[in-house]
Amino acid sequence: MVLTCAYLDCSNRLKTKRLRSLARTHSGVVTFHVFQTSEPARLKLWFIALRLDISTPINVLKLLRVCSDNFFYPDDFTYPREDHVRLKPSAVPMGFPHPTEVCEQA
Ligand SMILES: [Zn+2]
């Protein structure tokens, strides 16, 4: 199975069996990240940034990934281990104002 990035016009793709070996912190390596289906507020921002239909079922979302090229590097990432890349809880794909800016205006 080949994963394709869900971001509009992004053509990065990755074979699932290589996910772990590619999840490194080194710049230039693309990592793929799942949708935050457990956080409705953040998920909504993802829908807007990715221009997805907000009624897309959860089981479909769980098959989608967004690659690291579509986030703000390095601000949106944490590195719990050398070979592991995670998105920060505040991370939203580019194309939508950063959540911290939205909060400051409120
Ligand atoms: Zn991408």
Task: Please compute the radius of gyration using only Cα atoms.
Answer: 14 Å
The shape is globular
Order of strands in the sheet with most strands: 1-2
Low-confidence segments, given as residue ranges, are: 17-26
Portion in helices: 10-25%
Q: Can you count the beta strands?
A: 6
Tally of individual helices: 4
Which helices and strands occur, and which strands form pairs?
Layout: E1 2-4, E2 13-15, H1 19-22, E3 32-34, H2 40-50, H3 58-61, E4 65-67, E5 77-81, E6 84-87, H4 99-105
Antiparallel strand pairs: 1-2, 3-4, 5-6
This protein binds zinc ion (ZN).
General description of the model:
The protein is of the alpha+beta class. It has one domain (2-15, 26-101). It has helices spanning 19-22, 40-50, 58-61, 99-105; strands spanning 2-4, 13-15, 32-34, 65-67, 77-81, 84-87. The longest helix has 11 residues, at 40-50. It is globular, with a radius of gyration of 14 Å. Mean pLDDT is 80; it is low at 17-26. The structure holds zinc ion. Zinc ion binds next to strand 4.
Features:
globular, 106 residues, 20% strand, two-stranded antiparallel sheet, binds zinc ion, alpha+beta, two-stranded antiparallel ribbon, 25% helix
Task: Give the structure's gist in a few sentences.
The chain has 106 residues and is of the alpha+beta class. The protein has one domain (2-15, 26-101). 25% of the residues lie in helices and 20% in strands.
